[in-house]
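hey
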């Protein structure tokens, strides 16, 4: 039988506990890499899903994700008239928090430009896309809201008609999708008393000027619905997403729109850079550094464990040398044990991670590229960690067993 396996059988309990400890440590390293990937993927998720060529936002802002952006709703029509533009849609995004079933429920509300956009691009796992202009909602499964559930937001109740998976904002909040009008109704919802006070203040301001004093109809209008006042436009939107016609020069279209004095234009790649290099940059770098530190700590712990295991076998190694065993046999013994420890620990980390990672509050995205890289690092650590034990074993003299 292989000498390394024979030694492991002799000290199986200790070897197994050591492998489990290293496996849990490697699981943390694997999880850190997954959280890092999930963070970056969540940050660019919506930009990739929407697949727009250009994002038109408020002048000199980096919106709508990295910074608040508000532009007039009629910008969509102005953009559509630019040569080379295939389509343009309003985009509204805002985050709300409500109490639901005795717990806080935080969500990012995305407004779809219905009826052009009914959510056909969303990764639905159950239900359907939006079919009505009002009071329907597509929610992410992580919110725990079942199909058909009616949820009250503002003054209206919305029915869950579809469920998505892994649709989260840059801050990790689950997304819900409603029509643009419903999204604005939720965003600008006001209590009855607030509306009454606003109308009263508006009527008071009009009564202080000459037109208000001479034209009673103006006072009546000022105290009525906001939609009945012609000078008040519709609520602003966060951005306008633009798709460029096939064959058209996207840079030329962007330059034309950017020449307007009230808006700025970002390409899809620029949006990704703004998100990855701005919003999540510190979190991304911190996770990367923490992951590197965990790898270093893992290497040190493995080296100490292998060195301790070698010290426990000093007497046996001296006997082997006295019996004429070559150094190659002893080096092979320690190196094989180190590699087995690394491989078994890696397997434990992978299996345990499949159970643990799904219950993390934020998405842990494990990709094959990271698994292969971590596997190569573990093998490298195993070889390097065994060098300390090999060095100690080579210093053992055969006569030490006699002493």
């Amino acid at each position: 039988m292989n000498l390394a396996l024979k030694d492991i059988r002799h000290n199986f309990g200790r070897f197994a506990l050591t492998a489990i400890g290293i496996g849990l440590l490697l699981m943390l390293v694997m999880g850190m890499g997954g959280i890092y990937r999930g963070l970056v993927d969540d940050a660019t998720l919506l930009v990739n899903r929407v697949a727009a060529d250009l994002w038109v936002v408020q002048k000199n802002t980096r919106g709508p994700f990295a910074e608040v952006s508000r532009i007039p709703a009629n910008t969509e029509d102005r953009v559509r008239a630019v040569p080379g533009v295939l389509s343009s849609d309003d985009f509204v995004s805002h985050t709300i928090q409500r109490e639901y079933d005795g717990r806080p429920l935080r969500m990012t509300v995305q407004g779809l430009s219905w009826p052009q956009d009914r959510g056909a691009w969303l990764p639905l796992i159950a239900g359907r896309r939006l079919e009505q202009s009002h009071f329907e909602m597509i929610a992410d499964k992580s919110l725990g809201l079942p199909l058909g559930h009616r949820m009250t937001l503002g003054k209206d109740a919305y029915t869950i008609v579809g469920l998505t998976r892994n649709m989260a904002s840059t801050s990790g909040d689950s997304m819900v999708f409603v029509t643009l009008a419903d999204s604005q109704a939720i965003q600008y919802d006001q209590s009855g008393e607030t509306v009454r006070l606003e109308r009263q203040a508006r009527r008071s301001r009009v009564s202080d000027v000459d037109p208000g004093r001479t034209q009673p109809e103006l006072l009546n209008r000022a105290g009525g619905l906001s939609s009945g006042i012609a000078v008040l436009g519709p609520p602003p939107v966060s951005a306008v997403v633009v798709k460029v016609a096939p064959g058209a020069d996207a840079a030329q279209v962007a330059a034309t729109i950017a020449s307007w004095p009230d808006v700025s234009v970002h390409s899809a790649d620029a949006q990704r850079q703004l998100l990855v290099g701005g919003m999540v940059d510190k979190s991304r770098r911190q996770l990367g550094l923490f992951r590197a530190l965990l790898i270093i700590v893992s290497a040190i712990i493995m080296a100490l464990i292998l060195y301790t295991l070698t010290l426990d076998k000093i007497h046996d190694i001296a006997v082997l040398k006295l019996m004429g065993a070559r150094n190659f046999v002893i080096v092979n013994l320690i190196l094989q044990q180190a590699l087995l420890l690394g491989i078994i620990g890696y397997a434990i980390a992978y299996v345990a991670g499949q159970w643990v990672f799904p219950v993390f509050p934020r998405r842990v995205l494990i990709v094959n590229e990271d698994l292969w890289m971590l596997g190569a690092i573990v093998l490298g650590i195993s070889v390097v960690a065994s060098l300390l034990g090999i060095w100690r074993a080579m210093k053992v003299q055969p006569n030490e067993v006699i002493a």
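Residues 12-50 form the longest helix (39 residues). The beta strands are 54-58, 85-100, 103-112, 124-127, 136-140, 150-153, 156-164, 174-179, 239-244, 263-267.
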